[in-house]
Design brief:
Helix content: 40-55%
Oligomer: single chain
Structural class: alpha/beta
Distance between the termini: 52 Å
Largest sheet: 6 strands, mixed
Number of strands: 11
Number of helices: 11
Strand content: 15-25%
Shape: globular
Length: 326
């Protein structure tokens, strides 16, 4: 028996012995039916790719199908509400990104609390975003792009994977720190946002490196900088935004799994054990690293604490940018 399965079964046995109800008609085995993993962006986005990798391995191990359900609208709020309205029996999960933490400030009226109503299962990965432009735009560096934006206030646009997405928050942070006047154009996912840079509809995009890598290598877009504090091993010659002329700039595009806060804690722990197992599989680690993402896993409590800290950290930048939705 897989060494990770035994503690999971032990947890479920303990749950039953404690007399905690899992759901109506629950069986002795968890999971006992098809699982659903919500993704708040379109297919092909970095968060979608990660969700499919995790869902595939989870389904193989537990013998239950894990459906990846893309709901790319309203900054993830529709996907979030679906999770919170579902039976909190551990069978409905959601892959989130840093955008989930930003939504606590971006949306002044939410039907839920980003922190209190969700239970962290585990972080899954982190990855830099890469600032890309169309080569024909002109700027060949971050300072040149900032100079162009200042010379044409209000005339440049940046794309994102949707209002409240990680790429949206990244773009707003850049706008504030660089002191430029640019407009935001939201799409349903990162592939769409990148395509509209290549078409010339928008001037730049902070793309997840997993999405833009192929287009950077082909020369269809030019990588000016990565958002993180350190360079990406995938593109070691591309400087960080801080190195390229915006001192102190740092933005980590992270991803993780959550469920409803009403989910029994022993099920959260069982799910955590499974996700940690998957993230640390050599095959999955190799996939992530080859796509520019860093595998990460945490305890549920560590991920909850991390999300709370991210909400607080992002709030001042989002307020300063004016990127709020009533």
């Amino acid at each position: 028996m897989n060494c990770f399965v035994k503690p999971i079964l032990a947890l479920i046995a303990a749950l039953m012995l404690c007399g905690v109800s899992m759901s109506a008609g629950a069986q002795e085995k968890f999971p006992h039916k098809t699982m659903r993993m919500l993704v708040p962006l379109s297919a092909g986005s970095a968060i979608d790719v990660l969700a499919r990798w995790v869902a595939e391995k989870m389904g193989d191990d537990w013998g239950q199908q894990v459906i990846v359900d893309n709901r790319p609208s309203a900054g993830g709020t529709i996907a979030s509400e679906y999770v919170l309205n579902a039976n909190p029996d551990g069978h409905t999960l959601m892959m989130i990104s840093i955008g989930q933490a930003g939504n606590a400030t971006i949306y002044s009226k939410l039907n839920y609390d980003v922190v209190k109503d969700f239970a962290g299962i585990s972080q899954v990965a982190s990855s830099p975003n890469v600032l890309v432009v169309l080569p024909s735009l002109g700027p060949k560096s971050v300072t040149e792009l900032i100079a162009l934006a200042k010379a044409k206030p209000g005339q440049l646009n940046f794309s994102s994977a949707g209002i409240g997405s990680g790429s949206h928050i990244n773009g707003e942070m850049f706008k504030v720190v660089a002191g430029i006047d640019v407009a935001h154009v939201a799409y349903k996912g990162a592939p769409e946002a990148l395509n509209n840079v290549m078409s010339g509809a928008v001037q730049y995009f902070f793309s997840p490196v997993m999405v833009a890598a192929g287009q950077i290598r082909s020369g269809r877009v030019l990588a000016l900088a990565v958002s993180t504090a350190g360079r990406s091993p995938m593109f070691p010659d591309v400087p960080t935004v801080a190195e390229a002329g915006v001192p102190g700039f740092e933005y980590d595009q992270w991803y993780g799994l959550v469920s409803s806060a009403k989910t029994p804690r022993l099920l959260i722990k069982a799910l955590n054990a499974e996700v940690v197992r998957i993230v640390n599989m050599p095959e999955i680690r190799e996939r992530m690293l080859s796509q520019g993402a860093t595998p990460k896993s945490t305890t549920p409590e560590q991920f909850d604490s991390f999300i709370r800290a991210e909400v607080k950290k992002l709030a001042p930048v989002i307020i300063a940018s004016g990127a709020r939705v009533n």
